[in-house]
UniProtKB/TrEMBL annotation:
One of its GO terms (cellular component) is basolateral plasma membrane. The gene is SLCO4A1. InterPro entries: Kazal_dom (IPR002350), Kazal_dom_sf (IPR036058), MFS_dom (IPR020846), MFS_trans_sf (IPR036259), OATP (IPR004156), SO4A1-like (IPR046329). It comes from the Eukaryota. This is Solute carrier organic anion transporter family member. GO terms for molecular function: prostaglandin transmembrane transporter activity; sodium-independent organic anion transmembrane transporter activity; thyroid hormone transmembrane transporter activity. It comes from Vombatus ursinus.
């Protein structure tokens, strides 16, 4: 039996499953009779390949007649075994080369590839947006870096991605996507191992600190050598690791998204993509929690130390997570490399997809519907030009860039913000930020895709939904008008007699500690019984130290600068910062949660709108161009700008033998107000871009978004007829194989 040619000229696929049809009644799906009246109008829905289903009989015209006639007594084609075939005879089995065992075919489904891609995105998020952001303070302390330098390390990921995106998305979009994805995960794992390399190439982290060191009257001496300043050069190794992370993750969020979109039904695509991105959001949350726990382990494992986690000189085991991430990436890449170019039966979803491509006035958008378009480099300039002429696509890219700036900046320095506002240790701040990101970021990402599927939103409706979410997050971000006050600190915000100090002045020495010989280089804050912080036990005038048996916390006694409780006893202090009693803490956390929730709630809908407003042939390349815009205007400058702004809010810099090190204490009010200004500016820009995209979007004629649209029932009806139409476009009997 001869199979009619696909009007698109694209491949149909072999299914490893055989189907036997004895008879086919008139199909009824979801309570809708396929053969009912009014179906002829439904068959004029434009498809993504540029054709329109008409009332004329055609191989795809399942709207007009059943797939097979159920005539009795005659041999029907449906009585024979039926298989999906590939017109090019390409192998679509899951495996590596000739090794394609039957047991692996269980995973050769959209759900199977979704599982492994979710593992890869989870690992990428945990490493790049979790571990790195969690350990950034420890790396600054260990390698004498400024915040703008650590911001440059974070931005190196996006710089590498921008360099590779055009090449990967253009050639990978028409190539073997799973192989690009698998090799990308391998490179990402190599980047994790490189990032941990400085731990093994530098000397041990040595801190001249003992129980007696730093108290009043002790022999205090800091030797200044040239070796300490050279540690900052290791930032280039961290940047190399981030470059490899960026190169490896580039296929994941371009080719991975389009591979999922091509292999599932169009109405299920937002859900699959939402699950994929939810894993990417849960990854950073796990990174914050695991990274925060690892920071409680001393970086030099097995070496005793007198430091405690409350001490600002403490450096946790920041490097362990990267070793585990590198090993995991190598394991995850193996199954991804075994997937075929396209999954069995996926071509039916591509053929029957309804087009929502933005319509250009001169009709040049139809050029991208050519099956041969985009297969050679000579089509690259035209492909870029078609995307640049699509105002909806460009405005969605700019809206994504505004959101990416805030996400990149806050994800990098969010733990540091909480650490300063609530007077927390680095590990406590990272853990708390993880608790915020898990439900808000992960839940918002999944719910965004769920709402698009639940309400069957078309492209214009999706853009309106994004506009609504951005408006809500703009209102919530105004909470940064509030902030928690800095804990009072003697010599910085307060004089030792309790009176206020002018802003920016530093008076660490007073009559109570002038004979102690205190050094500015030794910063070890203690909390006095008067609930005031002191620069060090020496600056508090403490002369003795003891260790509590419960928890091993140090207590410094006989402190001459701490007000006396009785004429016969001097005050005492405990190691670490004073606990913040900020009454606005709960309110700040709630509104930060809302900002994160609604920011991520629009992420999947915006991505779905991007995929729908361009032609099928340009989807991978469009995502690549979008990521270039998002990272160039958002992801790269975001951490650098936020790091520069946070440095401006610094009250006390580390003094390394006359050189400026990392920041010890930040001014909470300045940090909060800078965050507020940045948030309002970028959220307003996001509203402008989403609103303009909605107004300028021009859907195809006859689509539900078009002014000349089908009847209200046609949208749901065409969805119900899709399954039957799909079967007619991809079936061929065994006799023709």
């Amino acid at each position: 039996m001869e199979m009619p040619q696909n009007p698109r000229g694209e491949n149909t696929f072999i299914s490893t499953q055989s189907f036997v049809f004895s008879s086919v009644p008139i199909p009824v799906e979801n309570g809708f009779n396929i053969d009912s009246s009014g179906t002829k109008e439904l068959c004029r829905t434009p498809l993504s390949n540029g054709i329109v289903l008409s009332n004329a009989n055609s191989p795809l015209d399942s709207c007009m007649q059943p797939l097979c006639s159920a005539t009795s007594g005659k041999s029907s084609p449906c009585s024979e075994e039926v298989k999906y075939v590939s017109s090019e005879g390409e192998n679509i089995a899951c495996g590596w080369g000739a090794f394609t065992p039957d047991c692996l075919q269980f995973f050769n489904t959209p759900k199977g590839i979704l599982f492994f891609l979710c593992m890869a995105s989870f690992l990428q998020g945990m490493t790049v947006n979790g571990f790195i952001n969690t350990v950034i303070t420890s790396i600054e302390r260990r390698y004498d870096l400024h915040s703008y330098q650590s911001g440059l390390i974070a931005s190196s990921y996006d710089i590498a991605a921008c360099v590779c995106l055009t090449f990967v998305s253009y050639f990978g979009g028409t190539g073997h996507k799973p192989r690009w994805l698998g090799w990308g995960v391998l490179v990402m794992g190599l980047g994790s191992l490189v990032f941990a390399l400085p731990q093994f190439t530098t000397g041990n982290y040595e801190v001249n600190f003992s129980e007696e060191f730093g108290i009043c009257g002790s022999n205090q001496n800091i030797s200044c050598t040239g070796s300490t300043s050279s540690l900052s050069n290791y930032r280039f190794v961290f940047m190399l690791g981030q470059f490899l992370h960026g190169i490896g993750a580039t296929p994941l969020y371009t080719l991975g998204v389009t591979y999922l979109d091509e292999n599932v039904k169009s109405n299920y695509s937002p859900v699959y993509i939402a699950i994929f991105y939810t894993a990417a959001i849960l990854g950073p949350a796990a990174g914050y929690l695991i990274g925060g726990a690892l920071l409680n382990i001393y970086t030099e494992i097995g070496r005793p130390t007198e430091l405690t986690t409350e001490n600002p000189l403490w450096v946790g085991a920041w490097w362990i997570g990267f070793l585990g991430a590198g090993a995991s990436a190598f394991l995850i890449s193996i199954p991804i490399l075994g997937y075929p170019r396209q999954l069995p039966g996926s071509q039916r979803y591509v053929v029957m997809r309804v087009s929502e491509t933005h319509q250009l006035k001169d009709g040049s958008h139809k050029t991208a519907s050519d099956p041969d378009f985009g297969k050679t480099v000579k089509d690259l300039p035209l492909s870029i030009w078609l995307l640049l002429r699509n105002p909806t696509f460009i405005l969605l890219c700019l809206a994504g860039a505004t959101e990416a700036t805030l996400i990149a900046g806050m994800s990098t320095f969010g733990p540091k913000f909480l650490e300063s506002q609530f007077s927390l240790s680095a590990s406590e701040a990272a853990t708390l930020f993880g608790y915020l990101v898990v439900p808000a970021g992960g839940g918002g990402t999944f719910l965004g895709g769920f709402f698009v599927n639940k309400f069957k939103l078309r492209c214009s409706g999706i853009i309106k939904f994004c506009l609504f979410c951005t408006l809500i997050s703009l209102l919530a971000i105004c909470i940064f008008f509030m902030h928690c006050p800095n804990m009072p600190m003697a010599g910085m915000t307060l004089k030792y007699n309790g009176s206020m100090l002018p802003e920016g002045s530093l008076q660490l020495l007073a009559s109570c500690n002038e004979k102690c010989g205190c050094l500015r280089e030794i910063y070890s804050p203690v909390c006095g019984t008067d609930n005031v912080m002191y620069y060090s036990p020496c600056h508090a005038g403490c002369s003795t130290v003891s260790v509590l048996p419960e928890g091993g916390k140090k207590v410094y006694r006989d402190c001459s600068c701490i007000p006396q409780h009785s004429p016969s006893r001097l005050g005492h202090a405990t190691a670490g910062k004073c606990t913040s009693s900020c009454q606005r803490k709960s309110l700040l956390l709630v509104f930060i949660f809302v900002v994160i929730l609604f920011t991520f709630l629009s992420s999947i809908p915006a991505l779905t709108a991007t995929l729908r407003c361009v032609s099928d042939r340009q989807r991978s390349f469009a995502l690549g161009i979008q990521w270039i815009v998002v990272r160039t205007l958002g992801g790269i400058p975001g951490p650098i700008a936020f790091g520069w702004v946070i440095d401006k809010a610094c009250l006390l810099w580390q003094d390394r033998c006359g050189d400026q090190g990392s920041c010890y204490i930040y001014q909470n009010s300045a940090m909060s107000h800078y965050t507020l200004i940045a948030g309002i500016v970028y959220k307003v820009l996001g509203i402008i871009f989403f609103g303009s995209a909605y107004l300028l979007y021009k859907p195809p004629r006859g689509s539900p978004d078009s002014p000349v649209a089908s009847p209200p029932s046609s949208s749901s009806a065409s969805e119900n007829t899709t399954d039957l139409q799909e079967r007619g476009s991809v079936l061929q009997t065994q006799n023709s194989v």
